[in-house]
Structures are given as C-alpha cells and as structure tokens.
Input
Amino acid sequence: MKENVIIIGGGVAGLEAARQMLSLGLRPIIVEQSDHLGGHVACWHRLFPDMTPARELVAKLVESCREANIFLETTVQSINRLKDGYAVMLSNGVNILSRAVLIASGFKLFDAAKKEEYGYGVYDHVITNRDLENWFAGAEDLRIPREPKVFGFVHCVGSRDIKAGNTQCSKVCCMTAIKQAIEIKEKFPGCEVFCFYMDLRLFGKKYEDFYLNAQRDYGIRFIRGRVSEVSETIDGRVQVKAEDTLSGKPLKIQMDCLCLMAGMQCNPSATSIADMLHVEVDTDGFLRSKDNIYSILESQKPGIFFAGACTGTKTVPETVAEARAAALSIFNYLSR
Amino acid sequence: MIYQGKQKIWSDYQKDIPDDHWYYARSCIRQSFFPASEKYFLKICRDLLGKDICDNEHHTTCGGIAYHSDTIPQETAMTIVARQFALMTECGYDNLVVSCITSFGNYTETIETWREFPELEARIRENLWKACRREFKIPKYIAHASDLVYKFRNQIAENAQYRLVDKETGEPLKIVEHIGCHYSKMFPHKGVGGAEYPCVLSGMVESWGGQVIDYPERRHCCGFGFRQYLVKANRGYCVSNTHKKFESMEPYHPDAIITNCPGCPYFLDRWQYVIAEQTGKTYGQNGYGIPVFTYEELAGLVLGENPWDLGLQVHQVAVEPFLDKIGIEYKPSEKYLGLNKEDLLRPEMPQVLKCH
Output
C-alpha cells in the first residue's frame, strides 16, 4: 500500500511520524514552512534529562526519513475536501491527493517582548530561553556577559498568564530552566544563579532528581515568587524586583543577565490550516482533539490527525510517542 | 538600553488625540501647588496653538482623592464624575481634557466600569438626576492635558526661545521624567507609550532638546500613594518611597525632573527639604536640590515665559541653577513679587537644602 499521506510540519513530530509511516509502507510527504527540518529542537543545544545533544536526535530523524518526500520553505495554500480524502495545494504549485492529513505544525514560542515589564528587547542583558540555547550551541550573543557573576531565570513568561492570553502551563519550561541553570553553573562555577518560579512542575522521569541536583550539587537558588519588574542600572546591569513568597519579603537583586523562560503557544500556521479544514480550535488556542483522553490524535474530521504540540504543550518524548501513535492510527484508518 | 526596543513599544501605544474643541477639567489641588500651570496650559492652547478650549467655573473636584482614600463609595465618586460630564455636555463639547492624573484615571475607570456594567451607568444617571436634575453624554474622547502638550510638542519646540541644553557645554540637560501612577498603570492603552515605558513626557523632553534619564526606580511611585500620606502615621512610608527614587536617580546627576501629576511634583519637590533635614543629604549640585517641574512649567520656560510668572517661586527646591544652566533670564529681585508686583514676603530658608 504505497499511499500518500501529507504531514504538515517537519519538526520532531512530523519526522518521527514520517519514519513510522515509511516502515508501515506508506508514502509520507512532509511540508515544512521553514528552511530546515527538526523545528524548534533543531535550534536547541541539549535535551533534558540526559543532556542529549538535540542535533543528534534531529540528525537521526532526518536520516531515517530520507525516503520521504520533503518540501522545505513550502506552505499549504488550500485544502479541499473530496469524497474520499483531501486535495492539498502547496505554495510551490504542487497539488497532492491524500486520504489522510497529519497536522504536526508544533508550537510558537511566546514573544517575551509582550511582557513589557521584563524589558526583553529594551534592556541590554535580558534574553530568552531560546537565545541562551543558541548561545550554548555556539552562537555569539553580546547580551550574555563573558564572566557573569549573577544570572537569573524567570519561569512562566507567557505561560499560566491570563493577561498574556495563555492560561496553560507550557510544561517544559521548569525543567528547561533547571537544565539551563545547571549549564550556566557548569560554565561559570563562581556565578550565583537564581530561578524565580510560581511552582515547579517536575512531573517526568528523572525531573525531580534534576531539581535536587541543581540545589544540592550546583547551589542554584530557587525563589518562589513572580518577578514584578526589571530595570537597568547605570552600569548596564539588570535590576530585578520580585517577592520571595516563602519568606514573605520583597527582593531586589542586580544581575548580569536575566533569562526569560518563554512559553508555548499554538503555531499560527496550525490555526490557519484549521480554518481551511474547519477543524476547531480549543479554548487554550491549540487545536481541538476529538476528545482529550482516548482520541487525542484524532480531529472531528475524518482523515485529519494530529501529533505533537499543535494540540497542546508537549515534551520531546511525548511528541515522539504521539507521532508514532498517529502514524499507526493513520495506517489503520487507511487500511479500513 | 536599546532605544529601538522602546520605540517599538511606543508604536503600540499611540493615541489618536483629536485636534481641537476641548472641555477642560481643572484639578482641585494643582492651582494651589503650581499656581500658574493650568493658566499656561490654556495660554499655550489658545494663544500659541489657536485651539478652542472651554474653561468652566462650575465644575468641582472629581472626588478622586476621597475615592482613593476610601472615604467615599465608588457610586458617589461616579456621580460626581457624571456631573462633570453633564457640565461638558451643557457646554456643547465632546472631548474632555483633564488637568489632573487622578481625575484622568477616575474618568477613564468610570467609563470602563460602565462599559462592563451598564446597569451601574443607569443607576448613576438616576442618582445625578435626583441630585441636580442634570443629564450627560459620555465624552467621545478623554485626554490628559499632557497628551495634548505631547501632541503639539514639536510646535512648541518651533516657537521655543530656549532649549533644554547647557549653554556652556552645548550638551542636552539630563531630565528625569516621572509619570503619575493613574495615567497608564490602570489602563496602559489610555496612556501615550503605555504603562512600562510611557513616552508622553520623554517625548516632550527630547523634542525640546533634553536627554531623558532612565534609572532603576523610574516606575516607582513618587511616595504620595494617597493613604501613605493622608494617614499621618504612614508619612514615614511616603517619604521613604521618595527617598528611594532620589537614591536611584542620584548617580545620573539629573538637572531636573518633569512630571504630569498634581501629587508627584509636590512630593518630589517638598520631600527634598525633609530628606535634607533628616539625613543632611541633597541631590542637586552645591547643596541645591533637583528642581521639579510640571510639563506646563517646562513648556513655559522653553517658550520664554518669566519664571516668576510661572509660579516657580513657590517651589521648595530653587530653580535658579537650572535657569542659569540654560541661560534663561530672570530677575532675582522679583522672585517674591506676585501679581501686580504684590510682595509675597520671603519664606524662611531651610538649614540644609540650599534654596537661594
């Protein structure tokens, strides 16, 4: 059965689904709007909890998808429902018929500049989790000092925040902050590192161990309280005001660099595809599954499936697992 | 500091301020603290800019001080606001320009509350009718008076006789801008530049040749905080907040402070005397303080008005060092002469803060 299946999105979900489809005898066609495969993970340095190099994972996935048709820098222009499937018109003029479509368009990182009080894009030494990850991966970033003495992380930037329009937890930020804090301590052992959190959501395998290590072995200080405002001092450092809700006291700390843990939002391209397909968007802004327990990979429409962060915030292992399951669901759907 | 980052935010918070035909709502306290500010706002609008602006002697306090001090219920404050709107309606105007920051916040909050709870608006209309047989239209537009001066800042600059520049060095003077809390902290989109990086005053400063100082405690309250000051036992908290701001701005050596609120310039000015007496410390050069101006006073100065006609002699902190830096001409002997050269008498001079 060499049957076409359109996969919208060439991130981890799309690649893993394509890999599984190839092994099941299907013909996956990946449509990716950017110029590279691997999505956000391709821009990441290392993945928790085992500090796996992200590029190794992406390279492995890309290698295993060599047999798939891949269109980079391509978007979906239109999708028309046929009697038994869908006609998908791409921006490169290619028209594909497929009985099943997998939406794996992932997430968009929250624009940290929208939290104006934190000064991203205004103050010289305020960065995001993505900026820091790029820097770990070797990119130059003048906002990160050569020898920082004090470094801060602000959790939940644009997550669990009604004012920012996102009520959901982004799930990965707590662990990413701890991972990045440890990496900063490894690079700069003399640096004091602070994490400002609302509450730590460390639900996954080895996550709690990671957190304990961060405190015990690296001396990272966790302050339970939200940062109220950030400003710049006369010598260009960052002044952070927060409340330590455990000690019940306000805090004012000057830092050399502040990293904002920007959360996840549904990728706007997912919602535009949802519009084309008349697939519903859920109250959290992500795509609505048929149900959230038993059929999370299925949409309300026949032949339209989901995988990864288009339906909600996901870790990489969850995304990989969903992608495999979605490939199998599609195989079963096409085999009926 | 990435200036372009601020500009990007400013572009999201620009107000489409109507060009003309305004009803002016004065402040209940500004004429006591800064006796010429409102007069010069009207003078600039009418004489320099040629605008139609209505000044009505019948309006009262907006009730904002009592409301924020928890001494009157919100419905009473809203009924007072409704009466102000009725006066504007009776005069045939749709655009309200407000002198006081707290009034501006109060009017804005009232309208936003009515938008959410129309039944409350209906009740207030009934209250107003029962109280004084008046009816009102909600203003089509509410601006703070500093919004108007911001809008016309470049016209003021074109007519300026002085620029905010050190006459000796040619360097721009360093100005701290302080925005009243009720301007945009409640409703960021109602303020030019938003809540975090308002540009209503910084825009004026830059347009008139000065350089804005962004210091760590820029956003901090001036210290007034209503109950912080109005409850006598809390006044230590009030002055400690002001002290925190001065300590934060001190390393930047500001030449002056510009404000757009009735309370802020009063407390930033007067508390410098108190801090000097308590700690022996002054924040200006050579034992002087940092002069604090309303935006109308600063506009008047760059337009070449006589400093004493602008009421600058009633400030606690001496303004002469600032005038000398720019090269503004004034007669020291006329400092304490009021209208028609009436002798205002000389105040007693403080021990620590140099004021003459």
